[in-house]
Amino acid sequence: AAAAAVEEAATTAQVAPTVDFAFDAPTTQLNVFRLVRAMQLGKSVLLEGSPGAGKTSLVAALAAATGHRVVRINLSEQTDVVDLFGSDLPVEGQVGQFAWRDGPLLQALRQGMWVLLDELNLASQPVLEGLNACLDHRGEVYIPELNQVFRALDGRFRLFACQNPVHQGGGRKGLPKSFLNRFTQVYVSPLLESDMCCIVQRKYPQLPATLVSRMVQFNGLVQLHFAPAGAGGAAGAAVGDFNLRDVFRWADLVCRYQCPPLFDPSVGVTPLYLHRLRRPEDQATCRHLFALVFASFSLPAAAAA
Fold first, then answer.
1. What is the DSSP track for the chain?
2. Lowest model confidence (mean pLDDT) among 14-18, 109-113, 206-210
3. CB 56 within 8 Å of CB 72
4. DSSP code per residue over 33-97
5. Angle, vertex CA 238, rays to CA 57 and CA 227, nearest 5
6. Best CA proximity match to 172, nearest among 34, 51, 38
7. Which tens digits make up the pLDDT trace of 176-215?
8. What distance in Å separates the CA atoms of residue 111 and residue 115, rounded to the nearest whole number?
9. How large a percentage of the chain has pLDDT more than 70?
């Protein structure tokens, strides 16, 4: 029965006409099955995976495919509890008057929407403690300013969270085991090059399949050579990872400034790749990689120092 429910949910997602998401990519299908199975357990769901694996877009696409509204909240060390649940704010046009304003999380809880907390392991300890009340079996939160308890609407409110692995740095920290136990944890597998080709081809059908394949190949080579330390690349060589988001930006620039069938893939490579490499020798290596993949095209010459 569980397998049938998972298959039905995935099928619903695939045929939804308004969802701009490639559910048919093999790794994406696997991740969808994992997410839907986790949702059957009734607990909040925590998705963990590398940047660009599609954690956030996966939840947003599933919400759109099933007719749910989703509220995305990006967490950081500066996020406060009042940013989530609300506070007393000045009333416009009335001097000295204050009124309660629901925060996005409280508003979603009251209206039965889905909530997606992004970068959970960047949140401060007070925020994690404030979230505890929403994560247990009661699904409620007490607002002392209002002396009122708000309960989640049964079957409608769902809470999801996403995070990158702790070893990728950026201020991320390991979350307490007692807090993690309130979630069903789902590992989001990274996308393979074949998945990326499928996804990019669906989003940009005007691009030839051979061109998309080479763009994905080049992106993978750059990631392999220059990914931040801990991901297999040279330490400090590049600013951030190179993933599907970069291929999307690249394809968007190629399509925006050129007309089919004559597409020049060199468009966008300089700002998206070369300018993110710190050392001149790394930029030269990147140019060499481009020449290996796109033998008939060349990048603009480097500016003189």
1. -HHHHHHHHHHHHHH-TT--S-TTSHHHHHHHHHHHHHHTT-SEEEEE--TTS-HHHHHHHHHHHTT--EEEEE--TT--HHHHHEEEEEPTTSTT-EEEEE-HHHHHHHHT-EEEEESGGGS-HHHHHHHHHHHSTT-EEEETTTTEEEEPPTTT-EEEEEE--GGG-TT--PPPHHHHTTEEEEE-PPPPHHHHHHHHHHH-TTS-HHHHHHHHHHHHHHHHHHPPTTTTS-TTSBSS---HHHHHHHHHHHHHS--TT---TTTTHHHHTGGGB-SHHHHHHHHHHHHHH-TT--PPPPPP-
2. 14-18
3. yes
4. HHHHHHHTT-SEEEEE--TTS-HHHHHHHHHHHTT--EEEEE--TT--HHHHHEEEEEPTTSTT-
5. 60
6. 51
7. 898 999 999 999 999 999 999 999 999 999 999 999 999 9
8. 11
9. 86
- CB neighbours of 131 closer than 8 A, spacing ≥ 6? 84, 117, 123
Tell me which of 171 and 256 has the higher pLDDT.
Answer: 256
Q: Which residues pair with 159 in a beta bridge?
A: 115
* pTM: predicted TM-score of the whole model, two decimal places: 0.82
Mean pLDDT of 90-116: 88
**Residues 204-224: pLDDT tens digits?**
999 999 999 999 999 999 999
What token pair was written down for 300?
């603009």
Closest CA to 247 of 300, 287, 288, 191: 191
- pLDDT bucket at 94, cuts 50 / 70 / 90: confident
Quick one: which of 192, 65, 181, 168 has its CA closest to 119? 168
What average pLDDT score do residues 103-121 get? 91
> What's the CA gap between 65 and 21, in Å, rounded?
10
